[in-house]
Amino acid sequence: xxxxxxxxxxxxxxxxxxxxxxxxxxxxxxxxxxxxxxxxxxxxxxxxxxxxxxxxxxxxxxxxxxxxxxxxxxxxxxxxxxxxxxxxxxxxxxxxxxxxxxxxxxxxxxxxxxxxxxxxxxxxxxxxxxxxxxxxxxxxxxxxxxxxxxxxxxxxxxxxxxxxxxxxxxxxxxxxxxxxxxxxxxxxxxxxxxxx
Length: 196
What we know:
Layout: E1 5-9, H1 13-25, E2 29-34, H2 37-47, E3 51-55, H3 63-71, E4 78-82, H4 87-95, E5 100-103, H5 108-156, H6 160-174, H7 178-192
Parallel strand pairs: 1-2, 1-3, 3-4, 4-5
């Protein structure tokens, strides 16, 4: 299994070095570093790390603006690191889907826990998205199948269960997925009814 690839955006050299050392000791790989927001944005887009440690107060472009821009293209779990607590910052970070929030000084145990929690939240998030897409696909497929079934029922004047059996038999005989057969039936029906 490949080590986790971590990107660090931090403008204070001593803190950057501390994070880099701690991350490497945890067995992770430092994929890249940046000392300002514009550099971070460019490198992250290019490197596509597994997780980002992002200081909020970066020169040129603040950390939250970097994340906002990144979110338009890719989703990478981000741990925000800041020197002070602010309710407004927490609200803005939440609105951007930040996976964790740490206040300096950060010790190695906090950092390790934050990385592990952020990655678990990210995997849960991805899993939810995939399940939703799968459910949407299943619903779309069901709509095609129901429509094709209706066409068969109308054309052959047969009940619903018989129409479904005919669809399933066509699918089996032609070794084509049920939804693909349904789409073909709808397409042919549309051509004959002048919809195309």
